[in-house]
Amino acid sequence: HYHLGTCSEKDIEDYNQMTEWLLSRTRHRPKIAVVCGSSLDIPYFPVSTGVSGILKGKSCVFMQGRFHLYEGYSLCKVTFPVGIFKLLGVETLIVTNASGGLCQDFKVGDIMLIKDHINVPGFAGQHPLCGPNDERFGIRIPCMSDAYSKDLRKLALDISHELDYTNFVREGVYCMVSGPNFETIAETRMLQVLGCDSVGMSTVLEVAGAKHCGLRVFGLSLILLLYIVSLDYSREEKMRAEHLQMMLNTLIARSHQLDEGINVN
Ligand SMILES: O=P(O)(O)O[C@H]1O[C@H](CO)[C@@H](O)[C@H]1O
Ligand code: HPA
């Protein structure tokens, strides 16, 4: 059932059943959940599959692929896995995605640590937390100003130094659009003006859900393509200013022609 809007009684029942089902089938009690976007593939896994296991000594649950709004899933469905993670006892959510670079300093292949986001569907009322608040998960109006854990970002930056990755690890603001088309040039310019460093069609809804239920969030975005619409108009502006001045001067210089014309008529 595809609907945009809040969770129904049935969805809440789904949460409980799914959690029970998962807990009964694995001895793992993961504290970390990883949503693998297009940038991170678990080999041999069909789309939107979950798996839990031990990675580097830590019990983790992974989700291969995710639900996107543009696929027709409801907002509730998109954030459903996050609620499940919470009920499973997860404390930290790691989200990854592939996005288009808007920041002029970025290069294709850069890894952007997400420091903040802009929720474009949210501006249009398409927000997974709209509707009656599910108190099991969190408060009615959650704070979103510190959605991406500062500590985890600091740790990631330290690690990028240790690994000698600093020339391609960046930090930036991720913007979610609903898709499914890539952005027009005018939209790209708009997003750049709004302070977005990259744009994609996911992640933000999951993060809003995660923040609502008190998960610590860390986000990584792989820059897959670059929008090369330059915002640097300074040279052109200068040229145009000269041209404008020239036009004005010429107009004034020739204005007698107009007067003469009027006089003639
Ligand atoms: O964000 P993930 O899931 O990585 O997917 C990204 O890749 C798709 C576009 O190629 C869009 O869905 C975009 O959001
Ligand atoms: O350029 C993009 N725009 C939106 N979504 C994307 N996902 C990967 N790249 C992009």
From TrEMBL:
GO cellular component: cytoplasm
All copies of domain Nucleoside phosphorylase, residue ranges: 40-223
Enzyme class: transferase
Catalytic reactions of this protein: 2'-deoxyinosine + phosphate = 2-deoxy-alpha-D-ribose 1-phosphate + hypoxanthine; inosine + phosphate = alpha-D-ribose 1-phosphate + hypoxanthine; guanosine + phosphate = alpha-D-ribose 1-phosphate + guanine; 2'-deoxyguanosine + phosphate = 2-deoxy-alpha-D-ribose 1-phosphate + guanine
Listed EC numbers: 2.4.2.1
InterPro entries given in the database record: Nucleoside_phosphorylase_d, Nucleoside_phosphorylase_sf, Purine_phosphorylase
Pfam families, per database record: PNP_UDP_1
Keywords: Glycosyltransferase, Transferase
Biological process annotations from GO: nucleoside metabolic process
Record GO terms (molecular function): purine-nucleoside phosphorylase activity
Biological pathway: Purine metabolism; purine nucleoside salvage
Role according to the record: The purine nucleoside phosphorylases catalyze the phosphorolytic breakdown of the N-glycosidic bond in the beta-(deoxy)ribonucleoside molecules, with the formation of the corresponding free purine bases and pentose-1-phosphate.
Family per similarity comment: Belongs to the PNP/MTAP phosphorylase family.
NCBIfam families in the record: PNPH-PUNA-XAPA, PRK08202.1
Protein name: Purine nucleoside phosphorylase
Protein species of origin: Oncorhynchus tshawytscha
